[in-house]
Amino acid sequence: MKLSIYNSYLPLDDASVLVFNAMEDSFLSVFGYCFDGNTPLDEIRKNVTEETWDNLVKGGVVVEKEKDEIEELRALIKKVDEDDSIFILHVNPTLDCNFKCWYCYETHKPGSRIDSATTASLLSLVESIIQEKPNLRAFDLSFFGGEPLLAFDEVLRIIRGVKELLAGKEIRLYISFTTNAYLLDEDKIEKLMPYRPGFQITLDGGPEHHDKTRFEKGGKPSFKRIFQNITRCVENDMAVTLRVNFTTKNIDSVSEIVERLKEISENKRTYLSVDFQRVWQDGGRIVDETYEKAKEYRSALRALGYHTPNNRIIHGVMNSCYGDKKNYLLVNYNGDVYCCTAREFSSANRMGRLTGADVEWEAEKRDAFLECKFSQPVCWNCRIAPLCGGGCRRQAMEHIPLGEDCMYNRSDSDIDELILERFEERYINNHN
Description:
alpha/beta
């Protein structure tokens, strides 16, 4: 037997330790004896009870000597990312937008729309996917952009076409939108209701701060209308992930969002998830007073019955990004194909082209993309590698050639903090 390379040891006091194993995502508190990864296994065995030893084995802290944990993790990543039971298709029906937010990385293309020929090719591709994947049980169709609701008629054509292709098959269709929701009026909601889509909708702080970031030409404010449309969706039993973009400047105004969310019917709050995301130009994942305030808002909303995920809790392997999946692609309005939504939709970032019922891939570029995840040697022995997976494929590809440093620049103390926050989230926040 040996100690797992994916253990973390956090002393509670001189004679107690909290042990976390990232492969099993398990915590074990050991009282009366403190040890770490340098302690001989025989010594640990002698100083803990039989029950504690059994729990160390069950929790993956102690593993068989012959076990190749790195290869086991590679196999797990492959299994998750190559799941053939689901296909995820993102569509940019337009790269036009009715807003121009200062932090947006996209270059908007006024007047751009997916045309009938590209729509026909897209539906032919979906038909091929369905025929070629006998294990398919779920089809995830998501609209991105640009602002997809600017091309609403085209969106409805695609939805109806995919729905028809899936008719009579044991494949569940999931539909979702990433939208600013300004155009999500009663008429559109009524037309979408038969498909029960979900929405990701962003607010940039409370009304005053939001309206300085998101406004129509001429400076017309948008917060009130967007919030009304969010409420409309929730009251009609359609799921919404409300993404609250916060910064050091707007964090105090977020309290106004919390107050307004109190007005939503208690029996409808399960349809709304509130995701606090720090604008990356403002510090990303830095833990400071701003982050702590966001944490307080999350707690307040939880007390009101809302789901509020913690975006610092890492799930990069078991719940990897859709862009990491083998069965994922994004079709742009002009037929360009991409493997990620988090970069500009330029020819330099393109992975292929939609041609008829198939995709003509830029083979060398796509192969490099598919092979780059968990490729950095620095990641293989990292104690939280089974959670992180070395970052998503896009991040990993951007760090080629390989370096000797964590792409997130995480120190040991940063990792300890992430683990403690995971413990708090699991055993404290969920039991308040």
